[in-house]
């Protein structure tokens, strides 16, 4: 098992947002975490990335549980180490690209901890092959990109950290259906080339088509789990997340 | 005003502008990464000048009068380098001891600003109580030479101050464009939450910002000492406030804004005084200098509230 989250509990002030959730991700898998607004999906990813509790602005605290990755508890590490030491990258909710940096600078910043210059160049070429639009706009400031291009940049940036595990927080948000299909197609390719993916989505339809397995998160509890096909066929999931 | 006199004022303005700009850079860089107005920064300038004073005095004493005495340019270089390094240490220590614990607890920014004010007072009174109220005379590290070219006279010190400042600022600009640490500094000023996701250790970047800001203030302190030779415990207060205002007028958080704002303030101050020597403007005595220059800056801010280079930033969480 690559990642195992056990009994994870997270608080915001007096409000408990995660009530002891457990799930796991195997090497090479695409696992999806689906759930409605406020279910705790972003909280889960931010906790794995150790942004909670280290980024004070987010205001969360871990009050119990463990996050075991390759046999080590991530809760003992700082946010940058999760990326540089363990190779867990994240495409955060709302993309959060650096609008004041050029596209190229955004991508290069993601290689901050890397020393393998030759491989960095190859990875940059690969990102530009996957997203030719980013190459055309490489000297443009991030904030001048369209929403879809910003999402491409956010995924490209995560690729440049050369993570083994990529966490994605609602990459479909605010994108036209065509673009969503493109991005999901890309995720499939990235996965086929060896990156494990944990995908958080409200768009359960697309997510369950792409993923191997999934979990359903409801107000801080995991209420269902199964293979993607099982979940897609589940009447409750159909009713709550698949619009029928 | 003849061309010669104008050029002379211009050089004076650039020298003062250099002091303001170097200090303003520290304000603006720390604001960029922490959204903190580091009100202790003017006093860091004072600390830099005093550390430079002690290093220079010590080096001048080494084998003084004998053949072993160090050449003056070596003393100057060691004084600048030593003071920049030690003052950077002071800046980083303040960050580590006073600001970081508050940040990590998610304290309101107001508490950080108040803490910064207190640190400034602490440095002033630490100086006053340990070194006494008497001013110190900063030694002449390189003999002052006066050159006169076509009616314009200027000192070698002035040229060194202006030249060194320009070189340092170009270097800083390149550092921020070309290095990963520099890019990370700019990234933090845009979105602090996303930076650790890139594998960037945020605390290291913040420390690096204090290293650069404090060492630039130390450089300004030594240049100031070399040009005016008088150091006092409160020397950083007014110049610090003015540099802060220069940073705001340039657009706080913007590197170029600090440079332009600093030089702009230098120009306004010198030329307000210069104008007072022109027939018909005698009423504009030098006591009006600050009043007039701040009026001009207020007008600029009224027209452009975000400063010359500043852009209204979206409120980021
Ligand atoms: N900073 C915060 N302070 C207080 N409560 C918070 C904070 N951030 C999140 N919460 C609460 O924690 C719960 C989980 O939020 P989270 O952002 O993880 O949900 P989500 O599943 O990602 O939702 P969405 O689909 O809308 O992004 C919500 O009830 C939310 O209101
Ligand atoms: Mg969310």
Description:
The complex is a heterodimer of chains A (244) and B (317). Chain A is α/β, with parallel strands linked by helices and 244 residues long. Chain A contains eleven helices and ten strands. Chain A has a six-stranded mixed beta sheet, with helices on both faces. Chain A has a four-stranded antiparallel beta sheet with strand order 2-1-4-5, covered by helices on one side. Chain A is globular, with a radius of gyration of 17 Å. With 317 residues, chain B is mainly alpha-helical. Chain B has ten helices and four strands. Bound molecules: adenosine-5'-triphosphate (ATP) and magnesium ion. Magnesium ion (MG) is lined by residues 41-42, 93, 169 of chain A.
Brief account:
The complex is a heterodimer of chains A (244) and B (317). Chain A is an alpha/beta fold and 244 residues long.
Q: Which small molecules are bound?
A: adenosine-5'-triphosphate, magnesium ion
Q: What's the helix-strand series of chain A?
A: EEEHHEEHEHHHHEHEHEEHH
Q: Largest interface, by Cβ-Cβ below 8 angstroms: which chains and how many residues each?
A: A-B, 33 and 23 residues
Question: Which architecture of chain B would the CATH scheme give at its second level?
Answer: Orthogonal Bundle
Residue-averaged pLDDT of chain B: 91
Number-wise, the strands of chain B total 4
Low-confidence stretches of chain B: none
Through-space gap between termini of chain A: 34 Å
CATH class of chain B: Mainly Alpha
**Measured on Cα atoms, how large is the radius of gyration of chain B?**
20 Å
Briefly note the structural class of the backbone of chain B.
mainly alpha
Q: Any idea what the shape of chain B is? A: globular
Low-confidence stretches of chain A: none
